[in-house]
Design a protein that fits this description.
Layout: H1 2-24, E1 29-35, E2 50-54, E3 57-62, E4 83-92, E5 95-103
Parallel strand pairs: 3-5
Antiparallel strand pairs: 1-2, 1-4, 2-3, 4-5
Length: 119
């Protein structure tokens, strides 16, 4: 009987370790982000949808929306340019499911060339 409990305990422990390892696989990565239709040439349901490019492959994004990251049609918006984003998530069913999505500043505009805006 003790052996049965020991085996059950070890099995549960291994299952728990495997579940934790699976969660840790979602690491922060820097990806290209843009409008899937306007910039990446993806076929969608119509309109503009947020997409990311990871290792040369593009995915529409679930977990955030193109309109939550500024005006998509502005000069630095997703429909006008490809931006960098720091993301956490995973690819499921050929879509990127984001648990975190942080748009990075436009490269080349870091404000180090001046001391801010004065009014």
């Amino acid at each position: 009987m003790k052996k049965l409990f020991l085996v059950a305990f070890l099995s549960l422990g291994l299952a728990s370790v495997n579940a934790q390892e699976k969660k840790q696989e979602q690491k922060t990565q820097i990806v290209e982000a843009s409008c899937g239709q306007c910039q990446f040439g993806m076929k969608g349901k119509g309109g503009c949808d947020l997409a990311v490019r990871i290792d040369g492959k593009t995915y529409f994004v679930d977990g955030t929306d193109i309109h939550k990251h500024g005006d998509a049609h502005a000069a630095d918006g997703f429909c006008s340019t490809v931006r960098k984003a720091e993301v956490v998530g995973e690819v499921k069913n050929d879509r990127f499911v984001a648990t975190s999505f942080k748009l990075l500043p436009v490269e080349g505009h870091n404000h180090s060339d001046h001391d801010g805006h004065h009014h």
